[in-house]
Structure prediction request, 242 residues.
Amino acid sequence: MRLNKWLAEQGVDSRRKCDEKIFGGEVSVNGTIVSEPGYRVMDGDDVRVDDVKISIERRLYYLFYKPKGVLCTNDPRETDTRVCDLVDSMVPSRVHTVGRLDKESEGLLLLTNDGDFSQIITHPSYGIRKTYVCYINHAVTYADIEKAREGAYIDGVKVVPESLRLMRSSKKGATIEVTISEGRNREVRRVLARFDMRVKRLKRVRIGKLGIAKLKRGAIRPLTKKERDELVAMARNTSADA
Prediction:
């Protein structure tokens, strides 16, 4: 099996991130640094990342409510609280976040040690829908919403929300619901900022059909097989329609 695929299947990270680790000289096989993602891993090979031996593990899938102020990284050099710091004691083996929520945002995250699953859910061509509730620190009009529905250019690519709904508005502020299927860094905040909507709080409330309603902040629960299969089917159907 190709080295990058093998690492992804053992839950090291998504296949794309595993490629980066390989190119960065972080991966060795039988004591030798390997810099080619296509290197063939054989049964019994000693594979290590940053000199930590990688063992074959059973697949794990979770839904987690990330609190504000927590980082989506497994980087051991990070001094701020990471998702893994919160969940390591709740799961039987290492998992990574599927995609990202920035430090100042909160809400739903998928966690897994299945790199192929992570790749399917996060790759732009698959387009899993994610819904956010955004709290704006000023009044917003329906005219503002109509303009924002036209989308904006982010990193040279036009991003158009799949839906954008004004939930409430007053002099004290407004609440907006946004659904997107893209995955660029701080995308929702950046799109709304193009239309002078300053987000003071952002919460991801839905991934596909998975909602946040019964999950408390900082809580975690396993995905059912049905939920996992529905996410994968949704991603593949979206890709086929593209």
Notes: The chain is about 25% helix and 30% strand. The mean pLDDT is 90. The chain has three domains: 3-53, 61-125+210-241, 130-207. Helices lie at 3-9, 15-23, 83-87, 115-122, 142-148, 187-193, 225-241.
